[in-house]
């Protein structure tokens, strides 16, 4: 018997890429192998076929890579001649479509479009109308509104249009699911932040006020040609701030509502024609299968009401059951008419369709689907499912495989290669209803408590592994009540910063969702994100999340958690140059007569000392640094100790005692190297560079600054690396490399303004002024020094204000303005007198 007869799957039956992938999917199903089985078998044969890669390839309509196809076929034990035949068919279909060939995108243009999920059939007329709208050169209508009942294919059409007409929008395509009909609609503020980041803005430069965000967003789009797709819009108000204003831009909105109060070109989607619904069923279940039973195929889509999502669900069931006769499926649908009497009406159609698949799952897989819907997100990692089920990763992934087989969840790979699982919104809505009907409230709460505990375990462990904060926590903020097995946690956190990158959005949603039910646990989880927020400069998210957690902790009288949050928010306020706010937070962290934890007391003292030093209160700062160092020694908190020692050295430096400053910096550097605390070593190296610079040894200074930059980059801290680069630029100018130095300083100025870091901006302006003085350009130097002085005057940073005023005076002398030079020197003396 040849392979085609043995498997009943022939690549020759495929006439396009989606049918070819469907044939591969059926072949895999006939073997009885799960995605995990394929991964293991491939490994045994010397191939690398991650389950997420295979699942993703078999759940798309595009042709998988030639090499991937060959490895998969050989793993499924096809003989070489049959593998060659499959590959020949694949190669014949591999010609690139014209729409792709014609693309001409701007370099770096964002593309947030999700991949197309359903085969798009029966929408030729709508695509023609939409194409005319999207390609139109006039500005009469800039919004396309796609409406219709749930499950009718609004999102599929919108995403298809985005891909089909991608060349019309060379400056990018933005996409957001507003979740308008879900339990928690998405805040337009967050969508604006996502869009602004995609358009090139740093998180730290995004305004807090929504009005300012809208203004920034529309300014960026005004001269661009960008497509904005707003999916699942509940009402016009929720989308108004997200609509573009540029004449070259277009918006596409989808909604179950008519959005009657919104003007634009309208497309009202209805159910498919029966023939088109059969084509969709054929895509899912196999064209040869439906061609042999055309009457039964028409009966099935009639029972589905020709609703695209309902047809897709039935097709998925048939694809998962290749030996099931179509007559059996048609009979099953007919027998369930009493349950599915609203099968052709809106949401009821979707709910009933999903229930058909849900009821064919085993009890454990049904429970997985129900519990996954409770987390406030439809995009989850396997560790979340493990916590929901009180099992390990392997157990969770086995059950997730069952959901993947019936397309009740989708799988995607992250940049690190880890898999994430996503439920369609309609599936999630059905699962939430089922959870409230079938799972006791106590069981649901325990499942969510386990997720929060597992999140706390992983976040705290990743935080400690990063070891980038001078807080130097040596113990958990709060003991997790449920934890993943050690091996699982170790595997997940092999790259802690990448884990945070992938999970930060989910963790934020989890905290916001559960903060009112367990404020202590949620607050401690929020604290665990501090280091990540700091390294990645996610200042907006840092403030919003921890302020919410702080408000809840204060309302509940939870002083220990409040202290931790005050300390973290004090550090944030310091970074963004809000010194009065930082002092208030640090003092509140130190208010309780009995400290929450010595680590937090020591780090709050050190943070407070740092702020006092910045505003010229040197004696008070030195007192707090010394107290922080004493406490840090007593509790063996080496991170905080190195920070406090270095801080004391800075005060000595500013007072002119370079020898003592150097001694303290070297002690901080030695201790940092001993414990492997790279941020501490970076800070000490930068500080030693300042000592060499003050002595005129610019070559040694440059080496210290370069070491500091390298250490900061190694932990992913771009802002700290820029602090070092700023002084490298200054050293280059003084070492006779003015062009390179000025270029580097200009780059640093751009970064500081992106991050809204005023202190760094002022330091860079001062160094640029020095470079311009050296180049004989006193007028430009005067402008830069004046700007730096204005910033430090506003921040009450008296030491550095005096430095800037000295430069103003020097430039004024060269410009012949002796009166201004005298005023600048007088103010500089006054600033120095403020140092106490």
TrEMBL record:
<dbReference type="InterPro" id="IPR019734">
    <property type="entry name" value="TPR_rpt"/>
</dbReference>
<dbReference type="Pfam" id="PF13424">
    <property type="entry name" value="TPR_12"/>
</dbReference>
<dbReference type="InterPro" id="IPR011990">
    <property type="entry name" value="TPR-like_helical_dom_sf"/>
</dbReference>
<dbReference type="InterPro" id="IPR002182">
    <property type="entry name" value="NB-ARC"/>
</dbReference>
<protein>
    <submittedName>
        <fullName>Tetratricopeptide repeat protein</fullName>
    </submittedName>
</protein>
<keyword id="KW-0802">TPR repeat</keyword>
<dbReference type="InterPro" id="IPR027417">
    <property type="entry name" value="P-loop_NTPase"/>
</dbReference>
<feature type="domain" description="NB-ARC">
    <location>
        <begin position="138"/>
        <end position="287"/>
    </location>
</feature>
<dbReference type="InterPro" id="IPR042197">
    <property type="entry name" value="Apaf_helical"/>
</dbReference>
<feature type="repeat" description="TPR">
    <location>
        <begin position="602"/>
        <end position="635"/>
    </location>
</feature>
<dbReference type="GO" id="GO:0043531">
    <property type="term" value="F:ADP binding"/>
</dbReference>
<dbReference type="Pfam" id="PF00931">
    <property type="entry name" value="NB-ARC"/>
</dbReference>
């Amino acid at each position: 018997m040849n392979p085609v007869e043995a498997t009943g799957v022939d690549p020759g039956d495929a006439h396009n890429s989606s049918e070819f992938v469907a044939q591969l999917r059926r072949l895999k199903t006939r073997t009885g192998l799960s995605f995990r089985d394929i991964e293991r078998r491939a490994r045994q044969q010397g191939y690398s076929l991650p389950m997420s890669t295979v699942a993703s390839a078999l759940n798309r309509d595009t042709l998988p890579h030639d090499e991937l196809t060959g490895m998969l076929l050989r793993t499924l034990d096809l003989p070489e001649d049959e593998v060659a035949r499959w590959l020949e068919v694949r190669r014949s279909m591999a010609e690139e479509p014209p729409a792709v060939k014609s693309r001409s995108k701007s370099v770096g243009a964002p593309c947030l479009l999700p991949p197309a999920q359903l085969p798009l059939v029966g929408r030729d007329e709508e695509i023609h109308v939409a194409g005319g709208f999207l390609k139109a050169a006039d500005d009469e209508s800039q919004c396309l509104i796609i409406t219709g009942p749930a499950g009718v294919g609004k999102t599929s059409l919108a995403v298809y249009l985005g891909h089909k007409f991608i060349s019309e929008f060379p400056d990018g395509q933005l996409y957001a699911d507003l979740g308008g009909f879900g339990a928690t609609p998405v805040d337009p503020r967050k969508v604006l932040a996502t869009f602004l980041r995609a358009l090139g803005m740093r998180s730290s430069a995004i305004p807090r006020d929504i009005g300012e965000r809208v203004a920034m967003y529309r300014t960026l789009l005004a001269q661009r040609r960008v497509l904005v797709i707003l999916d699942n819009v509940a009402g016009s108000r929720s989308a108004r701030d997200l609509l573009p204003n540029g004449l070259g831009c277009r918006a596409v909105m989808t909604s179950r509502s008519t959005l009657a109060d919104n003007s634009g070109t309208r497309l009202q989607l209805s159910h498919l024609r029966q023939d088109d619904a059969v084509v969709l069923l054929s895509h899912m279940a196999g064209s040869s299968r439906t061609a042999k039973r055309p009457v039964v195929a028409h009966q099935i889509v009639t029972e589905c009401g020709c609703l695209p999502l309902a047809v897709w669900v039935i097709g998925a069931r048939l694809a998962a059951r290749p030996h099931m006769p179509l007559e059996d499926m048609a009979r099953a649908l007919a027998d369930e008419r009493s349950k599915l009497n609203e099968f052709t009406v809106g949401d009821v159609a979707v709910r009933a369709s999903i229930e058909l698949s849900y009821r064919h799952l085993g009890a454990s897989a049904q429970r997985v689907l129900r519990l996954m819907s409770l987390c406030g997100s439809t995009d989850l990692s396997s560790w979340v499912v493990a916590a929901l089920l009180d099992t390990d990763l392997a157990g969770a992934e086995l059950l997730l495989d069952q959901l993947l087989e019936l397309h009740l969840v989708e799988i995607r790979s992250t940049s690190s290669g880890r898999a994430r699982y996503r439920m369609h919104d309609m599936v999630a809505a059905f699962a939430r209803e089922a959870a409230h009907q079938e799972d006791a409230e106590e069981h649901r709460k325990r499942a969510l408590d386990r997720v929060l505990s597992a999140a706390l375990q992983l976040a705290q462990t990743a935080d400690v592994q990063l070891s980038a904060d001078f807080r130097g926590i040596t113990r958990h903020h709060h003991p997790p009540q449920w934890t993943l097995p050690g091996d699982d946690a170790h595997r997940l956190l092999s790259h802690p910063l990448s884990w945070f990158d992938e999970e930060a959005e989910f963790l934020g949603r989890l905290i916001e969702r559960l903060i009112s039910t367990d404020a202590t646990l949620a607050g401690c989880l929020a604290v665990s994100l501090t280091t990540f927020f700091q390294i990645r400069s996610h200042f907006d998210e840092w403030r919003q999340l921890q302020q919410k957690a702080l408000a809840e902790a204060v309302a509940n009288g939870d002083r220990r958690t409040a202290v931790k949050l005050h300390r973290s928010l004090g550090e944030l306020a310091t970074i963004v140059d809000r010194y009065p706010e930082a002092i208030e937070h640090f003092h509140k962290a130190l208010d309780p007569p009995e400290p929450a934890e010595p680590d937090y007391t020591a780090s709050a003292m050190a943070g407070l000392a740092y702020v006092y030093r910045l505003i010229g209160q040197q004696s008070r700062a030195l007192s707090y640094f010394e107290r922080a160092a004493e406490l840090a020694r007593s509790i063996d908190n080496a991170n905080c100790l190195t920070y406090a020692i270095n801080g004391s050295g800075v005060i000595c430096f500013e007072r002119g005692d370079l020898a003592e400053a150097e001694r303290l910096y070297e002690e901080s550097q030695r201790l940092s190297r001993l414990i492997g605390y790279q941020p501490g070593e970076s800070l000490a190296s930068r500080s030693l560079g300042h000592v060499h610079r003050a002595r005129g040894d610019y070559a040694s200074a440059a080496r210290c600054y370069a070491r500091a930059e390298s250490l900061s980059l190694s932990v992913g801290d771009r802002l700290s690396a820029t602090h070092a680069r700023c002084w490298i630029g200054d050293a280059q100018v003084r070492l006779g490399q003015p062009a390179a130095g000025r270029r580097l300083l200009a780059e640093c100025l751009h970064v500081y303004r992106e991050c809204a870091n005023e202190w760094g901006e002022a330091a860079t302006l001062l160094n640029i002024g020095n470079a311009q003085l050296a180049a004989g350009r006193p007028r430009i130097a005067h402008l830069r020094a004046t700007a730096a002085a204005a910033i430090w005057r506003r921040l009450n940073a008296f030491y550095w204000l005096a430095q800037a005023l000295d430069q103003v005076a020097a430039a004024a002398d060269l410009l012949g303005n002796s009166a201004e030079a005298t005023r600048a020197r007088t103010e500089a003396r006054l600033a120095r007198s403020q140092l106490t």
